[in-house]
Amino acid sequence: MLNIVSLIIGVVALLCAGIAFIPLLGILNYLVIPLALIGVGVGVASKNDSGRNLNLFVIVVCIVRLMLGGGIF
Question: Shortest CA distance to 58 belongs to which of 50, 48, 46, 69?
Fold first, then answer.
């Protein structure tokens, strides 16, 4: 059950991260990273790793996007 919750949080975070790839909306990544961290926390508590791995992927993508954009863009 916790894995499903973590997957849902990960999908929502991934959709928001997709929106944050639009130019000048990169600051949205600062909201997506904490959301994905919550998903990682829920995913750690479950037996399966898929929800946790999805949220970790979202975090890495958002951090790379922030580094490429200089932290704002």
Answer: 50
